[in-house]
Model the fold of this input.
Amino acid sequence: MPRKKSGMPFEVYPTPIKGKDGRNILFARPVGGLRKRITEEQIDEYVAKYSLLSRGQLRLVLEEFKHWASEMLAQGYRIDTPIGSFAPKLKMKGEFTDPDKVGHDDVELDGVEYNPGKLWHEAIGYWMIDGFRKVDRPDNTKLLADKEQLEQTMRDTIKRHGGALTANTFSLVSGLTYYSARKLLDEWTQGDNPKLLKTRFGHSYIYTEI
Done:
């Protein structure tokens, strides 16, 4: 069967669960998984290009929504919107079994629960005229067998990216899965003669040559 050239690109990965034939059951996810992202600025520019909104208007609306919605969430409200519902999520600071012993200092905010409902499923379906497109990913085992080539790829990529590297970038350049790329980079930070230094940067880590 010829490969499709359009549609949402996806890859298949094995799970630890065995199927009826004794082989690992597979699951599918978009190419790049949760690492393939578009920023607020990029979507703002995209919307401005293809709609009647001017550049910056969408970001302004989102900022205003975040500001006033957070006040309502802080008061315990559940907020229903055209893009889903939001509600404050709480958790206990310790283990309690007696309700009478729970005070106002024993509870803390644990984030926000988001329920998209059916809206996103229907909205995304509108754009998916071409369905899905399978992408064959490289064999991790074969790639990891050539550590010298991967190390050279790592050094070349660091030079091209201003002296630093992330696991996401190394995964995309090397063909490794994100997990394998991060694991290999971490290996290069260990031992008596480490090749890399791992540094916290915002919500992620960057790797630099030693």
